Records
---
Amino acid sequence: MTPRAFQPAATALIVAIFVAVVLILQPVMRGARADFTEQKLYTLSDGTKNVLRSIDEPVDLTFVYTRRTGQEYPAVRAYATRIRELLDAYKAVAGPDLRIREIDPEPFSEAEDEALAAGIVAVDTDGSDPLYFGLIGGNTVDDERVIPFLAPEQEETLEYDLTRLIARLDRPEPPTVGVLSTLQGMSGDGRDSGYTFLQEIAKSFTLKEINEDFFSLPEDMDVLVMVHPPVLNDWQAWLVDQFILRQGRAIILVDPAAKTSQGSAFAGMGERQIRSDLGRFGDVWGVTLSDDALADTETALPIQAEAGEGRTTVLRHPLYLAAPPALMSHDSLITADLGRTVNFGAPGALILDEESPFETEVLVRTGPAPSWIPADRAVTELSAQDTLELYEAQDTAQPLAIRLHGALVSAFPDGAPTPDMPDDAVLAELARAEAEKSPPHISTSERDAEILIVSDADMVDDGLYVNLENSTAFADNGNFLMNALDVLSGDANLLSLRARASSRRPMTRVEAMRDAAQERFFDEQARLESSLEQSQARLQELQQVGSTDGFFEGDLKANLNDEERAELTQLREDIVETRSRLRSIERDFRREIDGLESWLKFINIFGGPIIIGAIGLFVWWRRRPGARA
Amino acid sequence: MKVWLEDTLTGLRASYLRELRAYFATPLAYVFIAIFLMMLGFFTWEASRFFDTGAADLSPFFYWHPWLFMIFLPALSMRLWADEGADGTAELLLSLPMTITGLATGKLLAAWTVAALSLVFTFPMWITVNYLGSPDNASIMLTYMMSLVMAGAYLSIGAAVSALVNSQVLAYIIGVVIAFAFTAAGWPMVTGAVAGMLGAAVGDLVAQFSFLTHFETAERGVLEFRSFLFFIGFVALWLALNVIWVSQRRSAAR
């Protein structure tokens, strides 16, 4: 081979080898990765692995993605790659019981019909073909669950969503939820009556109603929901206790002042139960409900109120709390994704015993300065004005909703109590039969408990979060409770997925500066605005005095004495000055943050070059001719 | 074999030290690093509006690395071999008892060291995010490391090309064009167009050869071994081409 021919030939050979090796290795090494992120965002969690390993019947996943259209959007393209690889990782763990395929629904293709039939959303893109980007899950009994659109912003919950989908497909019959409540809207089968929340439960779960005078709990119950429960007798409390030790899944809404409690069947006639609490469980768990209700001016919800003479007006009522997402836990899946407020009506506070051995997490809390309002007053139609008169600001935020987690002990250390039998012989016989079905007493948890406790029962009332005209929610009360049910009814594997923290890392220093500035400037602004108002009122007063008498003489100040005239001039000056200060406050508001930004920008753009320049100059100075003396 | 290894190591050491000294003997390296840092800072703060993102996260900073490397690094490597040809020192160099592999590796490592220094001097950015919030430092370190490996890939293109042509300017221009091809192959605009013409599968295939594709996972804080191997393999490929092209010249000179 001549040297001249050798070079191109060798070049071509080496390039060909490289291309071949890349093409072979890239697919082979897919998934071999080390996750350096602090929260291990890109590693399958143990929960997912457990779900995947325990699939009984084959589950089919169909990834629907219009490649041609998706390729034009970097975020979608990157996310599609991520999903494909996540599915591969799932497949690697699950084995043959998880069947994955991908379809590319080009326009007018069979794949498009399949995607549309399953309910995948066709996203309009300007100009080109619609984008289909979703996931269809199916199982052997033709159940179907669909993620209509895989939004790249929801990458955080992608694994949870996928795993939940698989878990639901693997166990097609929905979990059973038992509901015990003294509230009228929470009783019934939820088919076409009752609160929206009750109807939502009936849609997604098997709903079992528990009567107030129950002698046994539904046998196959997965989650117990108690909303403003009646006072339980020993036997009933023991049943609940045993359920919690065995199944460990409960949502308990108690209330020191249940404004929506109607009283028993004979409307208003019977004794109206105002308070419900955790009873003997409180002492065991280290969580008790306060005696008084809470009001909070910071989160006061605007509500319609009587303004007299048959008119209504909208005003913020401190006894109705609208807790914004900022006052919720961002770590818990129950609350992390809520974007709107969760509204409460005269809630209590959950008092946590510091020494309780069980893990608690506050999910929702009040603003920093709530006030106690006596429960007997809070439960009446207390006006906003009256509430403010009773208001004594406290200096700590109070928990409104908590999650209790861990292995619990029985509230009945001495074992099962004997049931109180009804006097009627027939009923007593039935009750005895029921009672005998109950399983033997256990004194510690068989399974870690996971309990949501909320200090308000009124929050399930449609009036607090559903717009009755078009039955859409305006607050996240329903989402909050349904999230909780979803999370609790899934198996423990799903719960562990929840621990994933958000990958968002805010510039905390800037946020703190903004908050501080806001506080400082809002105070100042409020002060200036009120002094402006006062000055203006006084000015008007003086002018009125002047105008009534002095008007006809053309001299508005005619009727004012010297002192008042001086005051008038002074007031006008004050007003001008206050206004200009208000304007400058608005300018000042961002000044510090802007200052920080320009400093950092300068350091980062010019800092490195300046250091390099200095080093260069130093080297040059050392090496210049004659430097070596 | 043992002799070859010794000659390679001698060549590596000699050319590494020589080239490194050459970089810092003239203002070239200083000016290069300074302008690179300024551009990177400018793009991060002005084009990506880093501060307005409100996140203590360096992704708007790392986003620009491939694109700036594409412009700057061929300038760093353009003189590695083109100079030798122009000055006629190549003949002398190649007659010494050193292997070309050793020489080429040493030269590449010298340029790589300058690139590493440039990355080191972006430390104000790292301090800034730590001052503003609490970033994920482990993943930032990984991204820095991958960025450095990627810089080697860009440099190896320029070094090999400079062995092919005698003019620095020509070496720079060809270097940038090749670097652009390997960067843009993963660019949505290009992959979209390729997919449109040749089908989606070809689009994905082309994207596998792009630096952007391989750097992307590292930007998120995940070390993808195949991406790491891709960059290392890429450097090996161009180093081999470099050696072939230089030895061609040596045999032609004889």
---
Amino acid sequence: MLIHPEEILETIQMVSNENLDIRTVTMGISLRDCGNPDIDVLNENIYRKITTYARDLVKTTDAVQNLYGIPIINKRISVTPIAVVAEGCDTPDFSSVAKTLDRAAEDVGVDFIGGFSALVQKGMTAGDLKLIKSIPEALSSTKKVCSSINVATTKAGINMDAVSLMGDIVKETAQRTADQGGIGCAKLVIFANAPDDNPFMAGAFHGIGEPECTINVGVSGPGVVNSAVRSLEDPTLGDISECIKKTSFKITRMGEVIGREVAKRLDANFGVLDLSLAPTPAIGDSVAAILEAMGLESCGTHGTTAALALLNDAVKKGGAMASSSVGGLSGAFIPVSEDAGMIRAVQRGSLSLDKLEAMTSVCSVGLDMIAVPGKTPASTISAIIADEMAIGMVNKKTTAVRLIPAPGKDVGDTVEFGGLLGMAPVMPVNEYSSEKFIARGGRIPAPIQALTN
Amino acid sequence: MVPSRFIITVIGIDKVGIVAGVTKVMADFHVNIVDISQTIMEDLFTMIMLAEVKKGNFDLVAFQKAMSDEGSELGVEVKVQHEDTFRFMHRI
């Protein structure tokens, strides 16, 4: 037999016991040809285009899932940033577009649709501003729509006017979804250096440089990596890195074969494969557990940033060898609410917001799914965003913030979101004010590129 | 028509009639066995088959269901997966 029985059983073990999955198949659809000054016509164009392209997305991914016997958890759509598409509309409010996206997503049966977005790193157009102001209504009146705003890049610097505005928008979105623990904020990401082809929500959108229709795949396997690391006998950190590399190679190959097959069947371009260790609330499927497997008593203690740096780098190295289409976010995600190990670490007091911020300088994305007290001032939220944007800008990497100021909750409480979003213990923020700093607005200039030391 | 090849794995507690039951379903669906290996690993009956389908209108979902149903009756877990799942994952 050409394939060794042990290899076959290893693959089956990864799926059955270690939660290996294709986390998401995301169809990116360009809406650039949908523009119209009349928003009703625009909405009609958008609905028609999405439902035409994505009509067979769910059916096809289900068939490919059966063929290979690997579960595909989410089917999603990302679209051209709506601020670009709706720029020409003279209406002051774009939330009707979000409702159209929601309806289209519902009708083709996908889990989420991303792209209620704007790219404002250097400044805002009238359309960008209208879109941002529509976010609280858009996210509180729809179920499947996700929104992202890119407010900083390494080349443009940080748009502090937008950062300041987003503090208010995050607060208002939380208030408008207060009856569900502020869940609207779980669908809103603020980015630095946002990638154009990200398959992971809530930050997915179909970038301006992308073709008409692409299939991007997100693969995830923290459980597999965790189990591989734990099975090593008294390894050095070099051995651990080697083991993670080999494991992520295998996981990436899996995603590649599935992504290419889905794209072929749907006659779409195959875009990227993003291997990210994205945890789920399931026991063992945890990034924190991998860090603890390396020898830390509890995630968040001294050494955590170093362990995460090792993990993130090894994942990228394994992935880069396995596929020529590896996406920009590949590495480890460290959302709090979605990771049982992170939740435990917060509850036992070993993991603070400050440590999480430090960890984001070496991880895939950033401050993700973190609940803070509902009474946190908007300026403090803006300041947390600004810090995270600065880390991304200076280090030439993607960073993001997805914070939930949980309405009516305080430190010691817990917010429940259910499903993949999990539950989040409310974490304390620094009590001292950042208001004056944030109110200054303007732009933090881009860092100098020549003197990198 | 390019033939499709599948890896079929059968894992469970050993008993009389597992091979007979599973291969009967395969024959019903015109699924040919290219290679077969069977061993007892950690007290578990483990059978791995490389199977080939030449028919153009092969209904994979119906075959998977029939195999899985047969497995339930025999008290074993039966999986049918395209060979690329394993080939791509472990080989460059």
